[in-house]
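PQ loop repeat protein
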Amino acid sequence: MDFVQSTAAECERLKTPSYLELIVSIFILIGLLISYLPQHYRIISRGTSEGISPYFVLLGTTSATAGFANILTVPPSRAAISCCKELETFECAAGLLGVAQLGMQWLCFALILVLFLIFFRYREANVPQEELGGESPKWQTAVAVGLLCVVHGLIVIIVTGVFAIALPNHLTVWANTLGVMAAGLAAVQYVPQIWMTYHLKHVGSLSIPMMCIQTPGGFLFAASLYARLGPEGWSTWAIYLLTAVMQGTVLVLGVYYEIAARRYDGHSAEHSVNGPHPSADGTAAAPRRPSANRTYSEGWERGLPGPFTGHPERYAETEEDLDHIQEREERAIARENQPLLRPGGIGNPRRNYNSTRN
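Predicted structure tokens:
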């Protein structure tokens, strides 16, 4: 009886939609689609999902599935769906924009899952191998992620159908269960991604523009759902509030490592003749010095060049190395008596260089 009364009240409310709320909802719906496009494009353009944790994809997809099922089964959404029988098309569409938003998010994240499964091997990437960090996931891991997402989706559909048909009075309990499930998965969704980004010290195929759009959008989305569903819909909007906080953490890490990498590249280009430069994580990194193909000489085992090397400062990592190179050169000069380093060569002090010949 309570559901019937709430449905009637919801129908009356939907007959006079708030145009401000409608504009904001449409803006969020379009923004959700636009925010995911950079991520889809980055994976496809790089030809690899390197940098994206498979467990982040698994948890994100299952969380999106549970969240979408949650908003379909909470009382306000069910009332709005029931009202469409007596509402105009525009009024019905305006009332279901909240459902459409979560449906769009589920669809976009499901596409990330598909792209992850297609491009999970690093050796087929369109970027140089030296830009790839770590090892690509095993095919067993990729298959397990895909199967678990499909099985989870099927279980949610079947159980939701059972409650909707056979146990409609308990459907709200199931909706709250789905909300708690989605919130729990969202709470740990970004943990493996935060760890992977921290471990790799770069974002890889994870899109920073996507996170720049979604992090503030997540807070706006949660506020929109709160305005639509109220405190009773906590199991829906709390998911996206928590997700926005976690995603903001990944964004801060990604921006930090990208800025550090750009500074390091610029510092290397401008000061390639100086000492060691800081790496992306702030620790000292060995400078890139040119390879020196040569026969054995003093200091060879340390990677230092042979004597009489032009621009020895390019090979020195520290001032001590540069002094050592110069000292070796002085010792080599003191020992040298054949400039061409072969018996009978020019400069042999034991050879007569009298130009008068018989």
